[in-house]
Amino acid sequence: MGSYYSDYLRHSSRLPVHDLIISAPMTAEQMKERLEQNYSEAKIEVYDLTGTQDHWEVYVESPVFAGMTRIQQHQHVMACFGPELKTGEVHALSIKTKIKA
């Protein structure tokens, strides 16, 4: 006989238990590595604003941003964390960008 919770999951219209994905929050190091993969020649700084690993501020100074508007630059950075922003693993992302000469 299963627990109420396991019975609920098994018989509900929600995802089956084996399809549930639980991931640990991103660390500052993981955030920085992700940015370095996309901006190899950049100056990158990452700050955990609340200590909860879901509210971040990133600073990216890169030549990749040449010719982009500020909004395009920020969209470019946000795209690096698309899946995490969708799931809420990254709940808040403050972005500062600069064109590296």
TrEMBL record:
Cite the Gene3D superfamilies for this sequence: BolA-like
Highest taxon of the source?
A: Bacteria
InterPro entries found in the cross-reference section? BolA, BolA-like_sf, BolA/IbaG_stress_morph_reg
Among the Pfam families in the record, one is BolA
The text of the family note is: Belongs to the BolA/IbaG family.
Task: Provide the protein name.
Answer: BolA/IbaG family iron-sulfur metabolism protein
Taxonomic source organism: Bdellovibrio reynosensis
